[in-house]
Write a structure and sequence with these properties.
InterPro entries: Cystatin_dom, Cystatin_sf, Kininogen_Fetuin_HRG. This is Alpha-2-HS-glycoprotein-like. By secondary structure, this protein is mainly β. The chain has 2 domains: about 110 residues, Nuclear Transport Factor 2, Chain: A (Roll); about 110 residues, Nuclear Transport Factor 2, Chain: A. A hairpin with a 3-residue loop joins strand 7 and strand 8. The N terminus and C terminus are likely disordered. The chain starts with 5 loop residues before the first strand and ends in a 13-residue tail after the last strand. It contains 3 helices and 10 strands.
């Protein structure tokens, strides 16, 4: 690809980024803040693909007293951020997508159980939608493509192969998740394709005879993650990547794509 530009940015350690959560209690005072924050953190921790979400609107928080605690049912609207699920950044520090970036919202119903000083999420259910008003007001804005788009996946595969040849220093990387693919027309340039995707470090050393696509990820405490944004049009391509260190205090949820 012509004009390939690669920028690597080291991120902070994965397991020390999240500020401590205030305890969730059955007291009405501060319930909306503590319970909602606890719920959103849980939702983001369950994400093994896609992007992190942050609060857009609290619709209702309804506690019900129980014999040894309470049950809390809440409805919240969340907004997708630019932080991939593999990004160690805390969700509250992530930037949301703005108009022109195809805003995605999530409506969630979450049920919490609080017993003494221990809170847990009993269930959560979220449904995502694209901002239809944005689509009407900005017909020339990039349009999201299906994540199974064959041509888009082929472009991503080509980028990863080139990355492994030019930039991998210890081990090869494989695709772990496709976050977004979009297409738009640029006047005087032509079609512009943008893909956001994540890679995970494998056990195959650079120079191995094994095809990188057949390699399996390293153990969670050793595997680095890379999140990239690649854009291509008739004038060339540009690739920007961030590298995240291995998970050292949790179980990896990432599998090869």
């Amino acid at each position: 690809m012509r004009g390939l530009v690669l920028l690597l940015s080291a991120a902070v350690a994965l397991c020390g980024a999240a500020p401590a959560l205030e305890p969730v209690t059955c007291s009405v005072d501060g319930l909306e803040t503590t319970a909602v924050r606890f719920a959103i953190q849980h939702i983001n921790q369950q994400q093994d693909h896609g992007y992190k979400f942050k609060l857009s609107e609290v619709i209702v928080v309804s506690p019900t007293q129980k014999v040894q605690g309470c049950s809390i049912v809440m409805r919240v609207n969340l907004q997708e951020t630019k932080c991939h699920s593999s990004d160690p950044k805390h969700f509250e520090d992530c930037e949301v997508r703005h108009a022109g970036g195809t805003v995605v919202m999530a409506g969630c119903v979450v049920v919490l159980s609080v017993q003494g000083d221990v809170a847990s999420v009993v269930s959560h259910k979220c449904g995502t939608t694209k901002d239809e008003e944005e689509l009407r007001m900005c017909p020339d804005c990039p349009r999201l493509q299906n994540l199974t788009n064959v041509e888009g996946l082929q472009r991503i595969g080509g980028v990863i192969r080139k990355y492994n040849v030019l930039n991998a220093t210890e081990h090869y990387f494989v695709l772990s998740d496709v976050g977004r693919m979009s297409a738009s027309y640029i006047m005087g340039v032509g079609m512009n394709y943008v893909a956001e995707f994540a890679m995970v470090e494998t056990h195959c050393p650079v120079g191995s005879r094994i095809a990188p696509e057949a390699c399996t990820p390293l153990c969670p405490d050793r595997a680095r993650h890379i999140f990239c944004r690649n854009s291509e049009n008739p004038r060339g391509s540009r690739l920007y990547c961030e590298t995240y260190p291995a998970v050292v205090c949790g179980i990896s949820r990432y599998k090869p794509f």
